[in-house]
Structures are given as structure tokens and as C-alpha cells.
Amino acid sequence: MKRQGGFTLIEMIVVIVILGILAVSAAPKFLSFTSEAKVATLQGVNGALLSAASITNAAAQLEGKADGTLTNGGVKVANYFPTADADGILKAVDISGDLKELTTAPTGTDIAWGFDAADTTCYVGYKAAASGGVATTKVEDTCS
After folding, report:
1. Residues in contact with 129: Cβ distance below 8 Å, sequence separation at least 6, in sequence order
2. Which of 2, 6, 87, 123 could form a disulfide with 114 if both were Cys (CB 3.0 to 4.6 A apart)?
3. Which residues have CB under 8 Å from 37's CB, separation 6+?
4. Dist CA 76 CA 65 (whole Å)
5. pLDDT for res 119
6. CB-CB contact of 87 with 75 (8 Å)
7. In terms of DSSP bridges, do strands 76-78 and 81-82 run parallel, antiparallel, or are they unpaired?
8. pTM given for the model
9. DSSP label at residue 119
10. Closest CA to 117 of 107, 104, 126
11. pLDDT in tens, 75-121
């Protein structure tokens, strides 16, 4: 009689168990990529907000406009920094894609964006400059 080649049931079960163990140990690493990508997005937008505020501040000082609308770019400023609205910081920085404006701005911000319009644990925010102060940003990056 000819002996047929192949795997025994025991060998197949051992391979499936090993693959299962590898999958269970590797899954958390792959699942954290989503939250890491969200945090990286927020950090990138934060950098863009800070840069736009600084550039707008320099332009406002060059034009001598503490309050009003800049000639170049049409960005609305108050205290030499962009205002926290569509005519101010949103004209200086294009925030689009997956980020949505939060329905309620978290404490310490005038306007904020996150991946969910109601999530106050994963967002980037902007606070316009007070008199004699500077504009600030805030990142809350406990994203899941």
C-alpha cells in the first residue's frame, strides 16, 4: 500500500494554537495605531495653529493693525493675533478632513476641533490673545 503524505490532526491543531497565540500577542500593537495616528494628527494641527498665529502676529505688527482685518490674506486680528472664528484662525489655517469643530469649546480654548464633535478627550484647541497677551493652543490627546 502506498502511504499518503500530509499532516496529522495533531500537527494541524498545534499550528493553529501557535498562530492564535501570535495573533493575540500582536493584536494590541496593531490596534494602538489608530490612536497614535489621531494623536499625530492633533500634534500636526497644533503646530499649524501655532505657526499661523505667529505669522499672522508678525504681519499684523508690520501693518500696525492690533485690531481689524489684515490687507494681505484678509485674516481678522485682535491684539495682533488671529481671532477664534472663521474670519480669523480658520482663514489662516485650513482645518478639514476628519477633524470637526467641537460643539462646546473645552475650558482654556475659544474654538476646538476633534474627531467627534462632542469628544473633549481628543482635540486640539485655540484661544485668541487677550489684551497684551499671546494666542495659545491646547492639545488633549487621550484618544482611543
Report:
1. 78, 79, 80, 81, 135
2. 123
3. none
4. 10
5. 87
6. yes
7. antiparallel
8. 0.78
9. -
10. 104
11. 999 999 999 999 999 999 998 888 999 999 999 999 999 999 888 89
